Amino acid sequence: MSERAERIAAVLRDALDATHVEVADESHLHAGHAGARESDGGHFRAVIVSERFEGLSRVAAQRIVFTALGDLMQREIHAFAMTTHTPEEWAAR
Fold it and tell me: The domain 3-92 is classified under which CATH number: 3.40.50.10420, 3.40.50.10490, 3.30.1120.10, 3.30.300.90?
């Protein structure tokens, strides 16, 4: 896991009391992408498991994640794809 991916995972674990977080740095797949070059931000994909998603729509859960990422979305992240699960959803997989 890259240093940025580790930092993102730590922020998500702390802010969301997440029981499971996987963050993959996919920046190498987007080498030369104009927007990424301009912002110096990376491309990331994440799986996040938290009780905070209980009863929320997918969009509402994603809003919570984006809020938790805060300034990282402006400084270090150019693109962020995510899948959110409650612990029960994750266990049923």
Answer: 3.30.300.90
